[in-house]
Design a protein that fits this description.
Its cofactor is a divalent metal cation. The chain contains 17 helices and ten strands. It is α+β, with helices and mostly antiparallel strands and 415 residues long.
């Protein structure tokens, strides 16, 4: 044990001191950051000379970057000069962090680009992500708190995806990471990797309306939703969904609900598809309509994996830093999805799944990139879940509605 600690200390000292010369001073090439650094030369040039390339590099327009900077600058600006060296200004700190999230490059690679030490990058990224979550998150990633807000989401689901009483699509992914020292099997998951779980609820326009990240990968996937704060708040009445209502032309009231895949338990407010064995025509119709609504959660994860590539590999950071990093990505995703100047470049044509008016489905470009080694799906329980009769009745009511008065013309061609 003592030997391991000694090795860890030596490695840490190496990371902290590698950017210094033998006399303990900052290396000369790092001190030239202000005149020759990546931000000073490339970034500032793109701001003025090639705005399209700036959007590609930063995932946003310079105008949107300035809005972000205005909010977080007071919280990421250094307050004093240390060791006689000039401090790294807030615009460069924010640029560095966004570039790290967008590319997933190592701190060592960013060190050579930005001429900033690895040790400085490590705390800058953490500090900026925390500032984004704390000060921008409440504006762009918040759970609906009123009946009117839930009803607005449900109306969009029914209008766009033809699924009534739906207020979100639930999905979860394992974020693969390097386990901390002495963690043992605490983060070990069913795919024989180490991970923490991201549980998210997608809205009708591919936005994230709720996220919970941090559950260790060893926890059974079926129980992650039950343990997250949104599920608990709904169960104890802290967050109240709109009152149950009848479907059009119906007489049975059904609750407002979330759609999910087979990894989740069937509940009155969580619907999942019918098992694939011995499906009748009406059950195939229901599964198709259910899949259309739930597909938005797949696209949400597809977008963030395509645009924020740090999560496509094994993240070599502590779990608490990864939590801030993932939440910052979701906040930035919602911010850019609502932006007029950045939305088109953030989600270019063809990136998302496309469905035409006749029901023809074209897969988005994000599906061409395998996420098998980065965002792992939740495992499906081999024994199934013991659903209540009430939950089964809600699904039966929806099935009958989709098969009759709630049918759409093209559904018969896909079942």
């Amino acid at each position: 044990m003592r030997k391991r600690k000694c090795i860890a200390i030596l490695v840490l000292q190496g990371l902290l001191e590698i950017d210094k010369n033998p006399r303990g001073k900052t290396r000369s090439w790092i001190r030239k950051r202000e005149s020759r650094g990546f931000y000073t030369n490339i970034v500032r040039e793109l701001m003025v000379e090639d705005t399209a390339a700036y959007r590609e590099m930063m995932r946003m327009s310079y105008d949107d970057f300035k809005v972000l900077l205005r909010v977080v600058e007071p919280h990421i600006s250094p307050h004093q000069v240390q060791g006689g060296q000039k401090v790294i200004p807030a615009p460069e700190r924010l640029t560095l962090t966004i570039r790290f999230l967008a590319t997933g490059e190592t701190y060592r690679s960013l060190c050579f680009q930005f001429r900033i030490s690895v040790a400085a990058i490590s705390y800058i990224v953490k500090e900026v992500c925390e500032a984004i979550v704390k000060h921008i998150g409440p504006l762009y990633l918040k759970v609906p708190s009123t009946t009117e807000e839930w009803l607005e989401i449900a109306a969009k689901f029914e209008e766009i995806w033809n699924y009534p009483n739906c207020v979100g699509a639930i999905d979860g992914k394992h974020i693969v990471m390097q386990p901390p020292a002495n963690a043992g099997s605490f983060f070990y998951n069913y795919k024989h990797t180490h991970s923490i779980v991201l549980m998210a609820v997608a809205g009708p326009d591919y936005e994230c309306i709720y996220a919970d990240v941090g559950t260790n990968g060893r926890v059974a996937d079926g129980g992650v939703w039950n343990k997250c704060s949104l599920s608990k708040s709904i169960d104890d009445g802290t967050i109240s969904l709109p009152s149950a209502r009848c479907l059009p032309f119906g007489v049975t009231k059904i609750p407002y609900l979330f759609v999910a895949d087979d990894a989740f338990a069937l509940k009155p407010n969580v619907m999942k598809p019918y098992p694939q064995q011995s499906l009748t025509e009406d059950k195939r119709i229901y599964n198709y309509r259910h899949s259309r609504a739930r597909r938005i959660s797949e696209n949400l994860f597809g977008i963030i994996a395509n645009r924020w590539r740090v999560i496509r590999g094994i993240i070599l950071l502590p779990p608490e830093t990864i939590e801030s990093l993932i939440m910052a990505i979701l906040v930035l995703h919602n911010y850019l999805r609502k932006s007029i100047s950045s939305k088109a470049s953030y989600c270019p044509v063809g990136l998302l799944d496309t469905e035409y008016c006749n029901g023809r489905f074209v897969q988005g470009l994000w599906r061409q990139e395998s996420m098998s080694e980065s965002l792992l799906p939740l495992s499906v329980s081999p024994t199934g879940h013991n659903a209540s009769n009430n939950a089964k009745l809600v699904r039966e009511t929806l099935k009958d509605y989709f098969f009759a008065e709630g049918s759409v013309d093209w559904q018969w061609n896909f079942c």
